[in-house]
Amino acid sequence: MNKRLKRMVDRTLVYYVIIGVLNFILCTAIMFLLFNICGFSDHIAPLFNYVLGSVIWYLSCRYILFPGKQSSGKQIVRFLAEVIVVYLISYYIVAPLLSRVLLPIPKVRAFFSFGGEEEAMIRGNCEMSIGAAAYAILNYFGQRYFVFSKRYEIRELAEESAEAILREEETAEETRTEE
User: Fold this and answer.
1) Rg of the Cα trace of the chain?
2) Burial 113-135 (b: 16+ CB within 10 A, else e)
3) Global pTM?
């Protein structure tokens, strides 16, 4: 289990977090601007967030996080499927459920009133925030294990092969030492 956890928490997670924070700030700011100032609905504003964020994610994953030579056509189809599924889960399942639990708490309600005191604004801000956080978390695992999984598997096989070669060399060295 420790080995599996170690493989999941590696440099890609660190880079993902850095790129994710920057992407989150940019795209979420645009989403809240569209919702709170421009009057877009709480369904349309997040779409702008996720479309822009998805383009940034794809380019980041393709060229920075999981670089390799996998077919771009297959990647794009897998990427689009993953983004759509993660978006639907995050925004239409996780966000409404958690906002129903959190909004009755006065401090939470006050925190999400930055767009105004109307119920729809508070609920919208809360759901969009929760949806964005859930999306970021689920998206990491979807990108890593579904969209760019062949790259991960190739890297994992290379590491295992290197470890096997080292073990064989150590065994051969021990055998020579015993003789």
Assistant:
1) 22
2) eebeeeeebbbbbbbbbbbbbbb
3) 0.66
